[in-house]
Inverse folding.
DNA sequence: CCACGGATTGGCT
DNA sequence: GCCAATCCGTGGA
């Protein structure tokens, strides 16, 4: 059980730093979504950085539009977009206002509200024990399990509906680095960060 | 106005 | 491993 009150809600200044710094430090932090009587929580284990200044794969690489405008906020806002006509992906906006940078949440380790996540994601119960590793192991899967959609895009992560916490018991994380998955532009950038050996990673 | 492709996933060959 | 699903932003005619 995660204690969501005595832990520290990540403050604005955490998010306003450069995207690569924030991306790496997001590993191990806990993503929380509070609903009426339910709390959903997952420990972030895989992320990718996107930076509109130099990164052609970022939605913010071109000018501000209705779709990408949230990416131009200052750090600490939630950016959710719809893709392939099927899936949502959620991001953490970083940097100063108009930086156009964000971190994609690619995978989390489910901690709390797991039954509700299973219900939303599979619309049935688990077929096997190991299916738990397929629950939140990809960006679209995380959004399905948590119920994130574009209606949540633009939410302030320093408020108490959707937010991140730093657990008091810190543990060293073995960080792996690779190219980002599923993109063709700026594909050479090594901007994917993950916890080596964690069983909840994507793919 | 139309055609195309995408920060994905799951099912079928 | 390949490919359909299925919406929407973008770019060219």
């Amino acid at each position: 059980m995660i204690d969501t009150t005595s832990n520290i809600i990540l403050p604005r200044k955490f998010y306003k730093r450069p995207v690569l710094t924030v991306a790496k430090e997001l590993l191990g932090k806990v993503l929380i979504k509070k609903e009426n009587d339910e709390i959903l929580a997952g420990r972030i284990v895989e992320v990718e950085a996107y930076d509109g200044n130099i990164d052609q794969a970022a939605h913010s690489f071109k000018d501000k539009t209705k779709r990408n405008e949230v990416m131009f906020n200052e750090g600490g806002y939630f950016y959710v977009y719809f893709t392939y006509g099927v899936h949502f992906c959620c991001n953490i906006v970083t940097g100063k206002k108009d930086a156009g940078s964000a971190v994609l949440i690619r995978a989390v380790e489910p901690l709390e509200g797991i039954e509700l996540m299973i219900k939303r994601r599979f619309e049935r119960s688990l077929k096997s024990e190991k299916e738990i590793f397929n629950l939140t192991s990809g960006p679209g899967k995380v959004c399905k399990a948590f119920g994130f959609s574009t209606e949540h895009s633009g939410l302030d992560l320093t408020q108490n509906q959707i937010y991140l916490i730093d657990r008091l018991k810190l543990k060293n994380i073995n960080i792996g680095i690779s190219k980002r998955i599923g993109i063709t532009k700026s594909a050479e950038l090594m901007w994917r960060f993950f916890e080596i050996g964690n069983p909840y990673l994507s793919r």
Observations:
- The beta strands of chain A are 8-9, 30-34, 39-51, 78-83, 87-94, 101-112, 162-166, 175-178, 192-195.
